[in-house]
Amino acid sequence: MERLETAITRMLGIRYPIVAAPMFLVSNRPLLEAVARAGAIGLIPTLNFRDHAGYRRFLEDWPAGLPFGVNLILRHNPRLEEDLEATVEHRVPLVVTSLGDPTPVVESVHAYGGKVWCDVVNLKHARKAAAAGADALVAVASGAGGHAGAVSPLVLAPWLRRETGLPVLVAGGVSTGEQMLAGLALGDGVYVGTRFIATRESGASEEYKRALLAASPADVVYTPEVTGVAANFLRDSLERLGQDGARPWKDVWSAGHGVALINDLPPAGELVARLVAGYRRAKAALP
Fold this sequence. Notes:
By secondary structure, this protein is of the alpha/beta class. The chain has helices at 7-12, 29-37, 52-61, 80-89, 103-110, 123-132, 153-164, 177-186, 194-197, 206-214, 235-238, 248-251, 268-285; strands spanning 18-20, 41-45, 69-73, 94-98, 115-120, 136-140, 146-147, 168-171, 189-192, 220-223, 231-234. Helix 3 (52-61) runs parallel beside helix 4.
């Protein structure tokens, strides 16, 4: 299938401007490999590995030449220094930072030619990331799964791109090719989380995946109750909070408003192809 060229595809040398977002305890090697082989790129949080040694093994075993990226949490992360050291040593092509000052990461990753993107939810954070030397911004808008902002993606992405001059990825509710078309009208790529949870390769439990299929946006709650920072979670899973033995990081399930348009569990590579085909049909159908 023909390439879709944007600032993001040129930056990373990938075929399509589709990014499988890094999702805690969900993103895994099978998901990232399937997405990459389909022409897109996936990310994994370094903290998805039980310890630093596990992260190093992942890097050592990753197929040469296959695009991928990692997510580094910058705040309250006791492994940050050693995980960054391994990231630099293995020359990870893409690093996305969250929750903190990205300057040291930008300096370290740029030294070997890698790219750094920053999660942002508003213009203040976007300007700080731009000043630090970020290569692109992830506009985490209202309706995104997990930690999300409160500004509509229709506004946040083009606003940040205009104000900073950086490429911007649209995050918040993207599940279909039609939404991908809208995202590329507003920004330079789409950052897709919840839709990739509902794929065969993702590390989510079958119960979690079935809950996504059954959910609507009315079942998604935006609350700081779980982590102290406002985020979107499935309402039914929030009921586990406070129960004996409940583990918020595992038993409370992140989800975005994109659940409205999720009704099956395809292989991740098929989903990439479906997004691209849907994008092309939607573009051709425009008046």
